[in-house]
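User: Structure please.
Assistant: Input sequence and predicted structure:
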Amino acid sequence: MAIRFQLLVESDDRFEVVVPRTFAMLCFRLLPTALDKKQNGFNKNIGHKSNL
């Protein structure tokens, strides 16, 4: 399942894999654009929701 998710992240230019996947953990982020403040909040929200 993590491999499939990694392929989805890598196929979308808005995201990048931050470090190589380890087992079932994939660290990724939304790449910055002109909307940096919104995206920073989005990245924090993803992190918060994934740690529930």
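Residues 2-50 form one domain.
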